[in-house]
Write a structure and sequence with these properties.
By secondary structure, the protein is α/β, with parallel strands linked by helices. Helix content is 31%, strand content 17%. The chain is built from nine helices and twelve strands. A seven-stranded parallel sheet has the order 8-7-6-9-10-11-12. Strands 2-1-3-4-5 form a five-stranded parallel sheet, with helices on one face. Bound molecules: NADPH dihydro-nicotinamide-adenine-dinucleotide phosphate.
């Protein structure tokens, strides 16, 4: 009985080491090793090759190695009866909160603009905004969105949030579903996207959303690339509807060298590093889920196949 780790980025050793250190009794294999396939009970995956899980006949569960599991649902060949688990981790939430705070404050104080002007040797003072005068709208108030909201509020921003149907207990306005979306967007001077990628949310960051934001609003997408319609963002920026955008995630990663985002002065790019799963911190929940699966118990942090997150 064992775990197999399958990752598209080759970062297997660090995960193996974390699992071995905390549960020396559990055999852990990585792709490239001689894997006893029928022993594998759990696959721990990050963008595994689609179809590759078919070769483990006794699999009892799929453990995603990040918060988002869209890449697992994209694999049409996974067995429909297998439970799918995701990572819920305090560092994942606090790292995301720190990152979004840094981007938001940087944009309002024009730091990214000055960095660009520096590359042109251009001395050009710009106006800036005070935090208490700005409302940040957070699309998706899950584990990460709520942490982001808390950190933004702690430095003086007003916050509004949007969910599918939950009503989290928070001390700021929350809007729900398609019917309330426009009221949420109308207030969002900075729009932070922390939605999961599902059939409902794909392409949601589009012209209609940009139109509904206050003029000169800013966008931060730290969720998934396919939530955004790239061309419609570029049009919105070029027409002055939006002032700038910080993008951490893209349709194709790495972002192709010829993508227009690279050269656009109002687009700020980071390479999908907003918040990265920490193997040492995440290992206990993987081990716990593995043991639960073996005992026939329900694992933790299950995702809903119906909702897609
Ligand atoms: P959660 O599942 O905890 O929360 C998702 C939130 O999105 C919920 O509030 C949910 O509403 C809302 N939501 C889902 N679908 C819709 C919809 N159709 N309309 C409106 N709201 C919707 O996710 P996390 O907070 O843990 O993570 C969010 C995403 O962040 C991940 O899916 C992943 O893609 C991304 N991520 C990016 C990272 C990076 O480094 N860039 C790192 C980690 C995660 P409700 O409350 O009603 O269910």
């Amino acid at each position: 009985m064992a775990i197999v780790i399958l990752r598209n980025d080759g970062l297997v050793d660090v995960w193996k080491a974390a699992l071995n250190a905390q549960a020396p009794d559990i055999p852990v294999y990585g792709s490239g090793e001689d894997i006893p396939r029928s022993d594998i009970k759990m696959a721990a995956v990050w963008k595994h090759p689609p179809g590759s899980l078919k070769s483990y006949p006794n699999l009892q569960g799929i453990q995603g190695l990040g918060a988002g599991v869209d890449f697992i649902f994209d694999d049409a060949e996974i067995r429909k009866d297998l439970p799918i688990m995701r990572v819920v981790d305090p560092y994942l939430a606090s790292d995301m909160a720190e990152f979004v705070l840094a981007l938001t404050t940087g944009m309002l104080k024009r730091i990214q603009d000055y960095k660009y002007n520096e590359s042109l040797s251009l001395w050009k003072p710009k106006t800036y905004q005070r935090f208490k005068e700005v409302t940040v709208g957070i699309m998706g108030l899950g584990k990460l969105g709520l942490a982001v909201a808390e950190s933004l509020k702690s430095v003086g921003f007003s916050v509004v949030g949007w969910t599918r149907n939950s009503v989290p207990e928070v001390n700021f306005p929350v809007f729900r579903g398609g019917g309330e979306r426009i009221n949420f967007l109308n207030r969002s001077q900075v729009l932070v996207c922390l939605l999961p990628l599902t059939p409902e949310t794909r392409g949601i960051l589009n012209r209609d959303v940009f139109n509904a934001l206050p003029s000169g609003a800013r966008l931060i997408n730290v969720a998934r690339g396919p939530l955004l319609v790239d061309g419609e963002l570029l049009n919105a920026l070029d027409q002055g509807m939006l002032a700038e955008a910080c993008l951490d995630v893209f349709h194709a990663e790495p972002l192709p060298a010829d993508h227009p985002f690279w050269k656009h002065p109002a687009v700020h790019i980071t390479p999908h590093i907003a918040s990265v799963s920490d193997p040492k911190s995440v290992a206990p929940q993987i081990i716990s889920n593995y043991r639960r699966l073996l005992r026939g118990e329900s694992p933790e942090n299950l995702v809903s196949r119906n909702a897609g997150y």
